[in-house]
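Re: that chain you flagged

S.,

Sorry for the slow reply, it's been a week of failed gels. I finally had a moment to sit down with the sequence you sent. For the record, here it is as I used it:
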Amino acid sequence: MELIQGDARALTGIMVNQEEKPVYNGTTVPLTSSSSGAAAVSPLSCTTCNNKIKQYNANGQIQEIVNVIKQQDKNDNNATDLFSQLPARSPVDLEFKDLSYTVNEGFIKRTPKEILHNVGGKFPGSQLIAIMGPSGAGKSTLLDVLSGFKTTGVTGAVLMNGRPRDLNAFRRQTCYITQDDRLHELLTVVENMRCAAELKLGKNLSYELKERRIEEILLILGLYEHSDTLAKKLSGGQKKRLSIALELINNPTIMFLDEPTTGLDSYSCCRVIDLLQKLASQGRTIICTIHQPTAKLFQNFDLVYVLSAGKCVYQGGTSKLVKFLQEVDLPCPKYHNPADYIIELACREYGEDKVDYLCKEMQNGRNIEWFEDPSKICKAEDLMRKNPVPPKTKARSLEDTTTWNQIKILMYMEFMKLKRDSTLSHLRIAVNIFLAIVLGLLYMDAGNEGSRVVDNYYLLFAILMHHSMTTMMLTVLTFPMEMNILLKEHFNRWYSLKSYYAAVSLLDLPLSTFCCLIFTIIIYFLSDQPLEMFRFVMFFAISLLIVFIGQSTGLIIGAWFSVVNGTFFAPVLMVPIMMFAGFGVNLRDIPYYLKWGTHLSYLRYALEGYVGSIYGEKREALECERMIYCHYRHPEKFLYEVAMRGDKFWFNFYALVIIIVLLRLGAYVVLKLKIKSEK
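Prediction finished late last night. Pasting the C-alpha cells below so you have them in one place:
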C-alpha cells in the first residue's frame, strides 16, 4: 500500500511539473537537476504514464488521482469552449509605423511636446500583449492612439491586417476599457449587463439569447453570484471584471485595457490576466498597459512592448527577453525579475546611453527578430492576400441600435439611479420642503400687507436665488462624474451624444417640476401671496423656467470644468448676473454704458416676472393693518420705485424661454467640444 501511494505521489508530481512553468526564465535561473523539481525526475512519455495507470488500475485510490489529473487537463484544454455564446473571432493583426503623438503645452504660448517618437510595432492576432514602461514613458498614450481614442496630433500609419485602418470600421470591432472603473454604481451587476446588451446588441439577438450570453459571461467571470449587488459595493477586482464583462457583450475582436491590474491584489491580478488569456485564445487581440508586473504575471503574456520616453526599447516574446538582454551585453542578474530589470533600464538607472542603445537595437519597434516565432509573422502583403477587403457598411451611425431605443434604455438607467440616489432625489425634495417652510414662516403674511412690500420683494429675490443656485450647483457637483462614464461609453459606441443628452434632459423634467411645484405651493400660501389662480400660475411658470435655466447653466459648467473648478466658477458667474438683475441697483440708476448687462441677465427677467405676477396686472390696493401709513399700499407706486412694469409678464416669459433654448443648445455644443477635446 505504501508503495502504491509513493508511486501515486511520484506520478502526480511528474504530470503536474510537466505542465507547470517556472516563475523565472530558464536563462536567468539555470534549471539544473538540483534546482528544478521537473528536471530532477526523468520525464515520462505518454506510454509510460499509461503503463503506470494500468499497473495500478486495480487500486481505486491511484485511479481516482489519475482521473482528477485528466479532468483538470481536459478543463484547461477546453477553456476556450466555455464561451459558447461568444464565438471565436478571426485573428486581426495590428501594425503601426512611424507613429508620433504631439501635444501643445501652455495656456498663452502653446509649445509643442512630442510624447511618442516615430515608434513602430506589430501586434499579431490571438495574443495577449503587454505595453510596459516607467511612468511617463507613453504607455497609455500609445494605447489611446492605437485604439483611436486620441486622433488629434497623431502622425504615422496604423494598419489592420495589412491595410490602412478605417477608424469607423475599426471602432466597430474594438473596445476600450479605462484604468478607472467607470461604472453605473447605483445599478446592480445584472442591470448594468442588461442595459449594455440592449445598447450594444440592439435587435440583433432575441431576449433569450441576450440573457444566455449575460449568464455565461457572469458565470465565467465569477460575477454570477453577485448579480443583484450594486456596482458600488463590489470589490476592486470584481469591478474590473465587470468592466470587462460589459464590453464583452458584443464580442469585440480587439480589446484595449489601460492598466487592468492597477490597485488589485495578487490573486485578483492573476484572475484578470487568466481571463484575458482565455479571451486571446479565442482569436482576440488583447492589448493592455501594465506598469511593473510580477515574474509570475509577466510570463503569462505572449508579447511585450517596452517604452522609454516615447521610444521602443524592446518588442518580442516574454521568454526571449533575457536572451535579448544577453545579446546586447546587458544581462539580467540571476534571481532578478526580467520585467523589473527592463523597467530599470528604461528608467535610465544604468545610464542614458543604455536606452538609446536598446532603441537602436530594436529599430524603435521595427525589429521582429525577438518574437516567439518570427517566421510565422506575416508581412502586410501576405495579410492582405489572406484577408479579403471587408464589405463596406451602409450604416451611417456607429451605434448598433436606434436612437429611440438608446433614449429608452438611457432613461431607464437614469431613472433607476435617480430612485436610488438620495442626493438627486430624496434630499433634493427634502431641501425644497425645508427651505419653503423656513422662508414662508420668516415672511409670513408679507404678500398681502402694504407695510411689508419691501420685505416681500426681498422674499421674491431669495426664491429666485434658491431656484437658480441649488439646481445649478447640484448639476455642477454631480455631472463631472457622469462625464467620465459618458466619455467611455460614447467612445465604445453604446449610444450617441444626442441620445444621451435627450434622455438626461427629459428624465429630469418630472422631478424638477415636482420639486418646484411643492416649493411654490408651500411658500406661496405661507407668505400670503394673492389668492388668484392666474397669479399663482404666472408665479410658478417663472419659478420653473429659472429652475431649467439653473440646470442648463450647471450642465455647461459641469461638462467643461472639474468639480473643484466648477464650484469656484459657478458662484463667480452669478455675481454679475445678480448685479444686473435690478435688485441691489435700480434699473434706472445703472449707467448707460452698462445697460447692456441688464439685457443679458436672466435674473432681471425673472425678477420682473415675479414682480409683475404679484403686483402687476392692475392689482388692487393692499391691506394696511399693521401700520397707520403704508407707503406702497398701491402697487403702482412700488412698480415705479423699482423701475419695473406690471404688464410685461409675457415679454419676460418669452425672454426666459429663449435663454433656456440657447443654454440647452450651448450645453450640447460644450459636451460635443469636450468629447472632441479628449481625442
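What I noticed first: The chain has three domains: 2-77, 84-173+294-386, 409-677.

Talk soon,
D.
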